[in-house]
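Much of what follows relies on a compact textual record of a protein's fold. Think of the row as the fold of the chain written in a discrete alphabet. An example makes this concrete, so a full record is given next.


***
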Amino acid sequence: MFVLSDNVIHLIGGGLGGALGATITCPLELIKVRLQSTTGIKGNSTKFNTDLQENVIKNDSTNRNNFSKVGPSSINEKYKIFEENKFSKLNKQKNDGKMHVKRFQILRVASAAREIMLNEGGWRSLYKGLIPLVSAVVPSKCIYFYTFHWALKTFNDSSIFIPNTVGAYMSASAVGGMSCLIVCNPIQVVRTRVQLSNGKMSIIQCVIHTAKYEGIQGFYRGFVASSYGISESMITFAMYYKMKERLHKFWENWEGFSIFGTNFSKDWCVHSVCGGTSKFVGVALTYPHEIVRTRTREMGTYRKIGFWRHLLEIYREGGYRAMYRGIDVQMMRTVPNTAICLATYELVVKKLNQYFHKN
């Protein structure tokens, strides 16, 4: 009989769990991305960004030619003034001279969803970006759980860590996070830009636009911010596995429960509770990096100013509230998403192990 290896079983379980969780929580993901962006719920205009990008490129080339005629001592100062003027005009065009930070913080999820549906074509607009979202989540979860399981097994078999300790879990999570980030960042950029568009931007149009105006580096916008975000998965998975061990011992004789004829096993309940709780803690501790990541992936607004300076600018917009803008929606999305993903992952891995390794 054909036998799957342990790593492949974890790959399949991660992919199925990620796909199910992402599909169920897609509307909340869309609202979260809009709240994190500089444009808010209204989103970007595709035509505006195309024209803006052309003007930025044209102005860049014109000003660089002008700077070549100026002495070296004044180039940096003049270019700095040019950059400040360029992006102050950009923000003025996009937000009519205002950064509506407070407005977007107090929007409820229901009113945000209603605004998107009224302005962008009904309930289907809430699932804008579902295909690139699932296309990003499935390979990223497959890669993550495959490399995580491989790295954890390697660390447990070596003398570097004591087997199944917090250090081993966090290190394996870092390996998995960096692996899927390198492979899947371009898909995440396309997904974010499609969700931020308030027009009918297809995946192909987004890919062509990004490649034409930004090149290969355009598909790796937000890479540095996402690298800081690996700490979130490190916290989440270390906490998840330790909580799972404790709860399995605590509920050793419990068989689960039933609601409306649906049976929920002890394993499903434990994995859901541990997954949701650990994700809540991980997001709460590391959320500001997501604001920076979303901003750097927007069309026509990217500036090479570094992660920490970008974070400082967000803080100047509205203090700590701006740094945690959209976290309520993120919690509503990511906690059930992670609970569903990890519970499904554990169930699939268990069933596949029983089928292929029953001897």
About this structure: DSSP finds 15 helices and two strands in the chain. The two ends are 11 Å apart (CA to CA).
